[in-house]
Amino acid sequence: MIQTGEILNNLKGKASPKREIRTSKLGYQFLLEDPKWQLNNGTVITWSNVPQIPGSEKLIAGYRNTLANYGEQVSPNHTKNMFEMMNRLMPFCNAGAVTVKALNEWRDSLGHERLWYLGNLRGFLLQWADWGFIGIDPKVPDFLDSLTLPGNEKGRAVRISCPHTGPFVRQEYQALGRWLQSAWRNGEISLQDCSLLRLFMETGRRPAEVAALRIGDLRVKSLASGEYVPSKDSHRLVVTRAKRRGYHAWRDLSTADELPISDDLFDLLHNLGQEVIRAVEAWWGVTLPPATAKELPLFCVTVNRLKEIGGPEEFHALEARTPDWFHEPTGNLYSRVHAIGKACKAVSERTNDYMLLSAYRFRRTLGTVLAKHGYNAYEIAAALGHDDTQNVQVYTENSAEAFDRYEEIMEPAFEPLLKAFTGEIIRPNQPGSERQPFVHVLPGYDARIESGKCGSLAHCHRNWYTCYTCVKFRAFVDADHGRALKEVEAEYERTKVQGYEDSMLTGLEATMEAIKEVIRLCKKMRQEGAHA
């Protein structure tokens, strides 16, 4: 069998040394023939993941060279995306090359929703042909140029207001903020995790942009004289953009955004930075000069890398060659948000369940909130760190999917909420209701009112009045539900006067209808009992 290494050395017009060293865009070196390429601190190309096809040696050789060129010229993430997309195409390349037939068969298997896979890979295949590497049919470029292919579908979660992956509504955001504050005060989450989640919530920036932050990116706005006078919006955070057409440098400060941040977030990040500085000074046994301290990453779990070096000089030398080496990999931030989500006790009133957290939900929320406040597409794009408006139209447009979603949400409301109460009416001593009585305290009343029982053993963090719309609620037939109704009606009026959004009022309206239904059913049950 012809060895891949031999083919790599005999490519037509592209002869290569047997042990060819390549360097990724972020300064990481790898050998062309190696089974693994590390492109940055969190991105690794593993060639054993490529589907094995008999007679594909030339195909793999051209594939490796093309991907190596990509790794040297574009971001590690984009290179990894091309690797994964190409691996999806590989099983169709039975002829030992990328052919028109293989592309047609793959396209037919994708369906409309995944056709963007081919759209994403098209540029990679065209470059492969342009560079002259073996393993691709000369007819492929003309075939690809003849196709009209969609890009990745963006914004679907926003358009349909998905309660699991789409933007948070105000009540959810408030509940999440309350839980985060409580968890931080009670020591349930670390300073680093609290800072990370607050940063995503307030700025909506990409995980890759957050991972690139350094201590020196925290700024305080001063007067022209240089004198510092604390005032509103005096705190700033410099955030570099992860996606810019024509720019490939990591942490390109010439194109960075200076974002105003709240005093609370500034204090969290400042304290986090001081924590990092103290730890590094203890490891190195020196007092860090300001020039070194400001270059330390804000988010850093790769502490062993900092521990293993001797001091500032070695740090600066490594940082100059591989600038992301000491930063937390982007993938770790995703994992940490997931871990925070597992600990989170905040509940969504839309789903009556714990909220699903992800970095991009906060990004979608910021875009949605800005659109609701009347910001145009250009302003939203700037806030989210986009160079153009093609990815923010979803926040400002009306779509058929949105109307379908609104209809789905509103359909139950057209039935005068006859099913707003979905629980049961029970008597306090009714057999089969062994749960402990659900007890709530109505604000403004001294007496504790036993209104019913909960059909679940799980500890619930929701407001007491949401029980009336919960399927697990068992309302006592002889409880004073009228007092509960009066309190919710008063809350509704307070909310209306304070100018909260309609979705919050709608939730209270549903609760009032449910309590009225409970009162009606209780009255009916008592009458039936009297007749019996």
Write a compact overview of the structure shown.
The protein is of the alpha+beta class and 532 residues long.
Question: What key attributes describe this structure?
Answer:
532 residues, alpha+beta, 3 domains, 4-stranded mixed beta sheet, 3-stranded antiparallel beta sheet, 46% helix, 9% strand, disordered N terminus, DNA binding
Describe this protein's structure.
The protein has 532 residues and is an alpha+beta fold. The chain has 3 domains: 4-145, no CATH class; 190-349, no CATH class; 424-531, no CATH class. The protein has 21 helices and 13 strands. Strands 10-13-12-11 form a 4-stranded mixed beta sheet, covered by helices on one side. Strand 11 (437-441) and strand 12 (448-454) form a beta hairpin. Helix 9 runs parallel beside helix 16. The relative contact order is 0.08. Keywords: DNA recombination, DNA-binding.
